[in-house]
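Appendix B, record 7
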Amino acid sequence: MQEYLPLFADAMLLTLFIGWIGVIISVVLGLIAAFIQYFKIPVLRQIIKVYIELFRNTPLLIQLFFLYFALPKIGLSMSPQVCGALGLGLLGGSYMAEAFRSGLESVDKIQSESALSLGMTKFQALRYIILPQAISTSMPAFVANIIFLLKETSVFSAISLMDLMFTAKDLIGLYYKTAECLVMLVVFYLIILLPVSIVGSIIERRLRYASFGD
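Structure tokens (predicted):
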């Protein structure tokens, strides 16, 4: 275990790098999709619904296979790193969209109407009235989605990415040290995910303390 610790450390850094790029992509896509749904933009709203249902109801592994093996058939090739980040971002965007949408819709319409009646513009009402409350309501689902996405990086090994799972499977195949490799795998995923969980819990408590939440 001591001898191959550097391999797991390198694999963890790669997992973190691609995982967080995927999370950033998912947040951007989720916000765009949530606003399109919240403001009921014609045509785009229907496209977003199809996107959400498609990606929420198919496994990430199949999505990665499609991106990595099927798209090159039509001339769209990408590296395993790009494929992993894009696949994770598209999957996460569908989950983030629903989390953000539910947060936006949890704010009573009368609050935005009252803001407009006081002379605020729609942008000011969104920024100062709706978003602070929506963020507080969405935070538990947002943190849960981040943890879910970082755990989903474990399927990256299927497209030859040398992440934590790939490293563990490779060493098990070479040396048959299953227990040791699985212990290392658990430890490094805890190193990745525990800080996210702890920070997320702290942020949730602070938002509730600020009276934005229940």
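Remarks on this record: The chain has a mean pLDDT of 90. The chain has eight helices and no strands.
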